[in-house]
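Hello, quick one for you while I still have it in my head. I'm working through a protein record and want to make sense of it properly. Would you mind checking whether the tokens look sensible for this chain? I owe you a coffee for this, so here goes:
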Amino acid sequence: MRGSSLARGWRSGIRRLRLDDGDQDQAVRLRAVTTPCAVHCLGVVDYREALETQRLLVEACRKDGCARLLLLEHPPTYTLGVRGQREHLLLDEGALAELGARVYQVDRGGDVTFHGPGQLVGYPILNLERWNQGPVWYVRSLEAVLIEALVTFGISAQRVPGRPGVWVGKAKIAAIGVRISRGITSHGFALNVNPDLTYFSHIIPCGLQDIAITSMAQELGWAPEMNTVMEAVIRSFARIFPVEMRAAPAEAIAVGHEGRPR
């Protein structure tokens, strides 16, 4: 199964990150980190299933305070956030279904976006009280994670004031839409690695009329391996927050028991 092979790649990638990080100061700082973060490698996951997984892990985090990061891809899916407007879907749901895409109204921030194969989706489940920080810091930190990860591929990305997400020039390469409920985060980011960008032509992305959408493949002229991109994101996530990344077993989405199968 594709999900299983990706999970093995993610876990081996985390092991390599631990072994290959030769910066002594970085190593000292990582040893001082006491906050572990379980990385759940889920492969391609139906959007509704991912929502339920997040709901369960949010409740687990509320009880145990443990950090988790879900890394996955979705089948073709359009989501509308709490500020999403149906008119920003340029086709009706029947026409989108004929394209193989489903539509969900969800409780994250933001407007409409697309998820699909070739896009790396990350759902961090964190208790922000542990960092004594709020929503603005959190969104900026997620942006920083992706900007830093993109640099490793030679892509110069940046923020655009007033427009959450990550941009390459005037084109958006990553979307961010989060929910924070009593300090616990859910939803997260979507980085375009090599998705079918034509799906974005059926929406007004993020409700913004004047933006283009790009991907790593489009910027580079070649498509990087998803595992390689995920390793870069994991490395950056560990530095920015900072946390100690720990690969959770593929079957261990059991709530509160990352080392135990459900």
About this structure: The domain at 2-73+118-247 is CATH 3.30.930.10 (BirA Bifunctional Protein; domain 2). DSSP finds seven helices and twelve strands in the chain. Residues 2-20 form the longest helix (19 residues).
